[in-house]
Amino acid sequence: MVKKKKSPEVKTYIITAAQNSYRMNKDCDLVTLGGGRAKAKLHKNFYQGLESCAKELGAELIIAPIAGKSSLENILHEDLDNNSNIFTGTNLWLNKNIQLRDIVVPPQNVDPTTGKKTLVSKYNSSLIIPHSKQRYLPVPVFNSDLPRYLYTTGAVTLPNYNIANHRGDTAERNHIFGGLVVEVIDDVYFNIRNLRALKNGKFADLGKLYNGDATPKDIKCDSLVLGDLHWGDHDPAAVEANYEMIEHFKPSRIFVHDFFNGHSINHHEKDNLLRKTREYKRGRLFLDDELGQGYEELKNLSKVAGKNSQIYVVSSNHHDFLPRYINSDAWRKNDLWNAEIGSYLFSQGVSLADSESYNDDSAYLIEQGMKRHGRLPSNVNFLKLEENLRRHGYQLASHGHKGGHGSRGGSAKARSVTGGGKSITGHSHSMEMFGDTYIVGTSSQLNLPYTAGGGSAWIAANAVLYSNGTVQLIPSIDGKWKAKR
Questions:
Q1: Which residues neighbour 132 within 8 Å (Cβ) at sequence distance 6 or greater?
Q2: In this predicted model, what pLDDT tens digit does every residue of 203-239 receive, in sequence order?
Q3: What's the chain's average pLDDT?
Q4: How far apart are CA 405 and CA 55, in angstroms?
Q5: Helix, strand, coil share of the chain (percent; to 5)
Q6: How far is CA 106 from CA 65, 66, 372, 433, in A?
Q7: Which CATH architecture has domain 223-476?
Q8: pLDDT tens-digit readout, 410-441
Q9: CATH 3.60.21, the chain: domain bounds
Q10: Percentage of the chain surpassing pLDDT 90?
Q11: Does the structure show a pLDDT above 80 at 200?
Q12: What is the Cβ-side half-sphere exposure of residue 158, based on CA atoms within 13 angstroms?
């Protein structure tokens, strides 16, 4: 009898930062820079919540010291005296692909990852940098390998800045109570997710609300934002993880980006005769078939979500492929296999009577094309490009491909300027976080033809917006998004 190979035990860490409070003067007395009372006290309710979460997950809690209002303050507040969770080393390898590293970044820095991308190559791993802000920055790698990341933690201490100057005042306003959960699956793979606390120290993790040393309670998922779906080029493992998250969190709202992929009418490939011929032989150039397959997936998604969950299809750049194609003469002259659906959608489009300011041909034509295949579920909604849908201050109706004044959407830092910064968007396929600006990843395959040979930071990742207004980014690797316990 062959014995089954035992799965390696998951090792879990919760990592946060603590600002220093004191420096030592020439008389060996502990003093604060500039005098006055010591800041950077322990946020006791948040700390107790982290201890509860660590107990629940069987995790090791790690608190990494960082500078106070200046690098001269290098001694922690007495609240943390003799705390066994203090990290005293310079680096800690969690597995061969991620490490905690004591990289000096002033807590006043607006973006703690500025100028740090090359360290990923230097140390050949993703890096967790202790800091009082929470930031995810993807670093592309070649040939569709999983990206490296720079992560910063957030802090477990109250803010300690010189608020008499601009940098200190801004830093205090942007101080984050937070941490990272890292589940080390083996020597190669890990799961990571952020913990973001409110000012009162309450935070959520995987649908549980932690409030100090109180017993964790269930917390409602207000909205689940899925990584760009690209149905037809989707990754089955990522889609399965999406279904698992829907069943786990039971969200009141689900937001889907780039649902329509447009591979059947992709204008980027119209002159690539070799690939287009091969795709025709594979049966992938039939627009009506692609719309029908999308319709079937919307029905399936609606069934998984249940009648109490609303599904919003966000107007996206791949959706724009459709009106571009209908406006062209391809379906009349070249792609005669699409002539029937092309003429039908053209007729539907010209019948729109609304003012041009309110028309969104992309959303309308996709909806009409799918309705040809049957009745759409009552909980499916197609959002127009100009619509707003905010929950807890977060804009959820924007795909992220449009920036200010007609520019492109850009990175999380670029998008943070638009609308005051509170948003959860898609488009870039790279999970990213900057302040209150979150970007989800993708649910598509990671090795599509147009990524071959170049640097890619694509990753499967979704965002959960809880009913208390906090957001958690949850990536999945090969469909695995949390450790089985």
A1: 17, 19, 66, 107, 154, 155, 159, 171, 175, 176
A2: 999 999 999 999 999 999 999 999 999 999 999 999 9
A3: 93
A4: 49
A5: 30, 25, 45
A6: 12, 8, 58, 19
A7: 4-Layer Sandwich (3.60)
A8: 888 888 877 667 999 999 999 999 999 999 99
A9: 11-219, 223-476
A10: 83
A11: yes
A12: 13
Q: What angle separates helix 236-249 from helix 287-305, to the nearest 10 degrees?
A: 30
State the CATH architecture for 11-219: 4-Layer Sandwich (3.60)
Encoded tokens for 472: 């958690």
- Residue-level pLDDT at 406: 63
340: three-class secondary structure by DSSP:
helix
Name 390's bridge partners.
395
Question: Residue range 237-254: average pLDDT?
Answer: 98
Tokens describing residue 483: 């450790």
Predicted TM-score (pTM) of the model is 0.95
Task: Give start and end residues of each alpha helix (H) in 354-469.
Answer: 361-371, 412-415
| Distance, CA of 223 to CA of 254 (rounded, Å) | 6
- Residue 420, Cα to own-chain centre: how many angstroms? 18
How far lies 73's CA from each of 23, 176, 307, 412, in Å?
A: 4, 20, 55, 31
